[in-house]
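Module 6 notes. Inverse folding takes a fixed backbone as the condition and produces residue identities as the prediction. Think of it as a translation problem where the source language is geometry and the target language is the twenty amino acids. Below is one complete input and output pair. Work through it position by position during the lab.
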């Protein structure tokens, strides 16, 4: 089958050669980089008589020495492509060939076997190709053979080559124009170049590879070859007019805690900008996007885009707060029995409006205050070494000073021992039992003014009471006595509740006490009991429920809850039933919720007004009491019937319902 086809091809090709030059429409290239891409190999031929010695980069995996090779390219439209190489006129041993893939015409991958034609026709077969990818055919004369030859490829195996390349997307600054950088097989006879756009503006050069454009948009490069009818397009996006914004972040202020802070700059988008930071004197302090600063001042950043006239500037101010407070304690008196308390006065200190004032007694404890309260003048009644520290909580700057407090008192009252008896209704009783320390007769005061030898105090409400003890040497002891009292029990009936008519509810009080007595009351009579913890109610109207509890100490608590009754009538009457004894909807009856007490009457009438069923005084939701589709024992026909139902509800009201029901057979 091959020989007749080849003969027919050669006859047709001979006629073609007699009419035109062999290098039409595109001559083969002398290298991979100059190879023409063809979309139609019909009647294509070329010759290597002028190829000359090889001067270009060629694949090392070829099956022989490369001497006068020629290259053409194609775009795969199928996974398998067969190229028939037909020598037409050959001087020498014949032709060799191979099909390659290369992305850069520097490194090559063979996609077919390297075939030595031995002066005859041969076929190069490439398999497992990627549809849409470009490949190269290299034909070389064996041992320098000079040949005119034809290439034949089935048109269904190749597609339009990717001639046009519109270039990379073009970013520019606002208001600028740009020159697009398209590439293709230029300066080839019959090739036409055309740029078009729907949303941009082409200022000049629409029929060249490098037009001047203005305005953001998509620009399409189309290259067509009149000789072959090949057409290819590619698109580039021109981001002209983009509004770049420079954002600066200055971090925190410099403080005693934070010795340096970072400042940073960033321009929106994904381009690589250059950044230069200068101080207020114009000195360059950094060329990084972000860097640390340890001095207060105004810093200016300039952002530029390499190759474009884009310049953005912004400033940031860094403040420094490193002033330290000054801690001062004024001279202090000596502690005596007559002057048991002395004042450590820090009012002469210099500090900011916000501060932390800390008094520390050597080897004792620390007190911390965070506002200007009277403890700026700290009263002390114990000897020791005291330290004052003032801290700015914002900046962390601190200052401290110390002072020694001495005492001449040797036997002052030391501590008070007492007994508390608490009563819920009458209050607490305090009995002072004894006092440790002190000399002579002791006097007591609950108000630091009226001193007496009274040691029993009654009817004390809960709270904190100052008790002062003074001995015969005027040595005093001030102490605070906490009277906790007896707390009444806690009671919570919860949130107000909504009930549907007919529903019941068990009231659930929440309390923290045991051994309680309960007394319930309500503005209606729906309580199941008045003295139990959890009465049950089933109200027919909205009302309030009140509970008072009393504990074993006689302390009481009370709470109220409102129960709202939804008085809507929940009655459902079907609109169809099928008395066919299949166990499903065999009887027509009335259904209702808990609010329905009973059905006082149900009557069924046919379309002529004759009553065919009547039932009285039965419960809702009972199919056995319903209509079975019979009248006087006879089965009624499929038809629409009228019902009249009278229902009585638990609140004593009645309501009449009427409608139609379909009897299905």
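Target side of the pair, the amino acids:
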């Amino acid at each position: 089958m091959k020989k007749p086809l080849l003969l027919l091809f050669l006859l047709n090709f001979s006629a073609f050669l007699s009419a035109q030059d062999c290098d039409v429409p595109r001559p083969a290239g002398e290298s991979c980089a100059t190879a023409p891409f063809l979309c139609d190999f019909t009647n294509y031929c070329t010759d290597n008589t002028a190829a000359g010695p090889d001067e270009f980069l060629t694949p090392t995996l070829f099956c022989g020495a490369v001497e006068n090779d020629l290259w053409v390219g194609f775009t795969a439209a199928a996974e398998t492509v067969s190229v028939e190489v037909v020598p037409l006129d050959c001087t020498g041993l014949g032709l060799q060939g191979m099909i390659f893939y290369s992305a850069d015409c520097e490194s090559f991958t063979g996609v077919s076997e390297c075939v030595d034609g031995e002066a005859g026709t041969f076929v190069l077969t490439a398999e497992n190709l990627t549809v849409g990818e470009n490949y190269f055919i290299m034909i070389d004369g064996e041992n320098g053979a000079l040949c005119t030859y034809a290439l034949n490829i089935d048109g269904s195996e190749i597609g339009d080559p990717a001639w046009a390349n519109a270039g990379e997307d073009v970013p520019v600054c606002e208001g600028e124009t740009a020159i697009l950088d398209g590439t293709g097989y230029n300066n080839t006879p019959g090739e036409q170049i055309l740029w078009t756009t729907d949303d941009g503006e082409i200022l000049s050069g629409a029929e060249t590879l490098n037009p001047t454009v203005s305005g953001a948009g998509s620009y399409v490069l189309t290259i067509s070859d009149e000789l072959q009818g090949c057409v290819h397009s590619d698109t580039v996006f021109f981001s002209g007019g983009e509004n770049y914004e420079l954002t600066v972040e200055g971090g925190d202020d410099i403080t005693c805690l934070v010795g340096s802070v970072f400042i940073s700059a960033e321009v929106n988008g994904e381009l690589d900008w250059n950044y230069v930071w200068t101080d207020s004197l114009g000195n360059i302090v950094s060329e990084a996007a972000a860097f640390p600063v340890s001095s207060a001042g105004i810093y200016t950043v300039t952002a530029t885009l390499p190759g474009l006239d884009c310049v953005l500037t912004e400033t940031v101010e860094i403040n420094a707060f490193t002033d330290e407070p000054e801690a001062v304690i004024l001279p202090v008196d000596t502690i005596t029995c007559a002057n048991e308390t002395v004042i450590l006065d820090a009012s002469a200190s210099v500090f900011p409006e916000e501060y932390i004032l800390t008094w520390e007694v050597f080897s004792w404890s620390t007190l911390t205050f965070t506002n200007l309260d009277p403890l700026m003048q700290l009263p002390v009644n114990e000897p020791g070494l005291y330290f004052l520290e003032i801290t700015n909580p914002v900046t962390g700057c601190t200052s401290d000073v110390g002072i020694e407090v001495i005492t001449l008192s040797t036997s002052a009252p030391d501590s008070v021992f007492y007994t508390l008896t608490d009563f819920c209704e009458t209050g607490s009783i305090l009995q002072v039992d004894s006092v440790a320390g002190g000399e002579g007769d002791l006097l007591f005061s609950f108000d630091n003014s009226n001193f007496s030898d009274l040691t029993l105090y009654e009817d004390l409400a809960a709270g904190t009471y100052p008790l002062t003890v003074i001995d015969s040497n005027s040595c005093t002891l001030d102490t605070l006595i906490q009277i906790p009292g007896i707390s009444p029990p806690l009671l919570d009936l919860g949130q107000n509740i909504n009930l549907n008519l007919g529903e019941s509810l068990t009231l659930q009080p929440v309390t923290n006490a045991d051994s309680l007595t309960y007394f319930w009351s309500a503005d209606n009579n729906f309580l199941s009991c008045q003295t139990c913890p959890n009465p049950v109610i089933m109200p027919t109207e909205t009302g309030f429920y009140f509970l008072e509890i009393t504990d074993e100490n006689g302390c009481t608590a009370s709470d109220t809850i409102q129960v709202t009754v939804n008085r809507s009538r929940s009655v459902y009457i079907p609109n169809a039933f099928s008395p066919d004894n299949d166990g499903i909807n065999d009887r027509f009856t009335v259904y209702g919720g808990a609010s329905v007490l009973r059905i006082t009457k149900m009557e069924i009438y046919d379309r002529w007004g004759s009553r065919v069923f009547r039932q009285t005084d039965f419960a809702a939701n009972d199919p056995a009491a319903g209509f079975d589709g019979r009248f006087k024992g006879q089965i009624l026909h499929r038809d629409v019937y009228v019902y009249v139902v009278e229902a009585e509800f638990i609140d004593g009201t009645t309501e009449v319902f009427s409608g139609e029901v379909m009897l299905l057979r």
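Reference fact for the lab report: The two ends are 79 Å apart (CA to CA).
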